[in-house]
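Researcher: Structure prediction, please.
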Amino acid sequence: MPSTVYKGDLTEISFGHESSVKLPTHFDESFVFSVQAESASDDTTTIRLTGTGGSTAPIDGGKLAFPVGMLVGCELTFSNLATGQSFDINDNYATSGRRFTILKNQLFSDTDATCDVTNNDATVTMDSTSSISVGMSVSGTGIPSGARVSSITNSTTFELSANASASNNNTTLTFSYTDLTITPKMFSGTSAATTDFGQGTIHIHSFKTPTMDYDMEHSTAADDSSESVLTDQFMGLLNTVSLPETKVDLKRYHVIGLGRDVAVQVPGRFTNIGGSFETSMHSARWLYYALGQEVVKFTPDSGAPTRTTTSAPSVGETLITHGSTTLGSCVGEYIHLTDTDTIPVHLYKEEGSSPVTYCATDIGAEDLVTATQKNEIRRIAAYYWNSTTSVGYIWLDDGLNFQHDSGKTITLVSYDGGNAADTTPSVNTSTRAITNPVNRMLFSKTTVPSFAMEVSIRRLDNQDEDGAGDEIVDGGATDAKQLTRVFKGCKVKEFSMVADTDAAVRMNIDFDAALCYTDTGRLESTKGDRYDVHRIFEDTANTEANRRKAGIGKGTQKPYMFYNGTVDIAGVRVGQVISFDLKGKTGVEQFYTISGNKIEDAATDQIPFAGARNASLAVEGKTEYELDMEIIVDDPVFYHELRRAVRNFDNANKMIRLSFTKQGTSSASGRESMDIVMDDYNIVEASLPIPDDQSPIKSKLKILPKSIRVFSQDTIFHY
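Model: Predicted structure follows.
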């Protein structure tokens, strides 16, 4: 009998980056955004996105590549608005600092059965053009692929962007577009729709915005939809997990004169806090989300395609442009951005020796690194080549960590051969040697990245095991009754990296989420799964290349074990380490803001009350690190360091270095490894208790570093 209960073994958890989306007007000539007609009493504005874009662009056929409701609660701003266009300049962020919140994102496919089209003619006649806008995608019998509304002539006639290929009377045409409802009300709102801003750029900010999936498919019927975001990354070798479940802060009021019982109950804040998990570390990936900065040292193949950037992206930017010629079928591949300009690793460091720059030859964990080049690798989330302007637009899956000047070289690198076969990083499963390894340094500066976590639970396995195609019918009697949630705006608050002589190196992560998106397709009239979940080993990491993209490449799945490690403190190799625990805090704190959101709530809303009752911000605070270590004492050097309160600073021979290298028969320098380095610290405790059982004396060291750096070598292009 099929299971009728939800089971833990049928739960799927994956995660992904959060990244901003920048949409410049006319990046494709057809793409425009417009303000729709609104009344004076409205406190919201609807922005309509129309245009064809392309099948690998963020918008295609008027449909923005995000699930319905996924952008609710995200922040939006406008830039590059100019005087003389069809808007109020006070909506421009640079002018007024106005920020908007998305209350709804909806995808529409409206049909009209009164359309008359003529072969080799762009004119279309219909009963009324009141419901269509310039730029809308148009499809139907006799309509060329990629056609759109070029202009509206009058109340019954409009022009296509291309001539019809057949003649038909009263044929049905479909008009596609995306509407974003935002608050507060724009100054640009009018009683009549503004057809085209003319210029300008929409910015959907990264916090609470999972990376788009250009390949998602939308349908008005829930059971026919295949909506998704790019939360396709492997969480790690999870031992335990606790989700940041939604809690309602219910306000209860007793009223004098109305008895002893509660008279009034009103919902307050919605919280999604208290998330945590423990993973046995098979890579240093989660240290990126705990520290925030990543620079890579990687050598692309000399024959890989290269382009030169024509934009100067700032920190956090996810859209870069290039000239010359198209990159072709590059979505899902990666770009290596080469930038030899240097920056200091520390925002502040007391006077010390001359800078040693990471990415320079043979510079690594054993060196006193104080500066770095700014090389980065990112996955291409979407791409569009404008053949008219000869500009290529590359949307990235994660914001850049550094500011870059224009004129930098980007190189296409790949996991599956493609255009750059020799750049594929891989592990030899017998010797454990890495071909074309990716080296990186992680460190802390001003921010940590946010991420989105996808969780699905179901009653039945969705696999069609006998090939008949009838095991699972979405919305039918054999339905698995799946519940899918995406926790958005997650940031690491605290972490702990633990190793002892009993287990693998373990990473404990504590995090909070800002809000939770829920697939409510089962509440619609056509009941089913609107969201298409990621099943890591079934359909996401189902090939060797896709496993590497997900962060669990073949041969990399084994964790770092205690016997893989070495510990050096103040120039001394400590051979009797029993355990260590490296703790860190990011100081991230959530903030709720007064939003004035009056939107009505419905049961089918993916995010209740448009996220107005959830946290608006998650801001980093003070970082603090602490290293606790237990050792069997065979040298009094640590005690002497303590009693003199010696500050170990600016001396490579005095660094603390926790080093782990995975097993293998090849040279250790060529295998997967990670090094955690502290070069500015004090030992504040080094107890020497005499044991009652006369056994060896064990000392518990407490060490307070000012900062930490992580050096890793593996096959992951970007954490």
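Model: The longest helix spans residues 285-291.
Researcher: Thanks, that helps.
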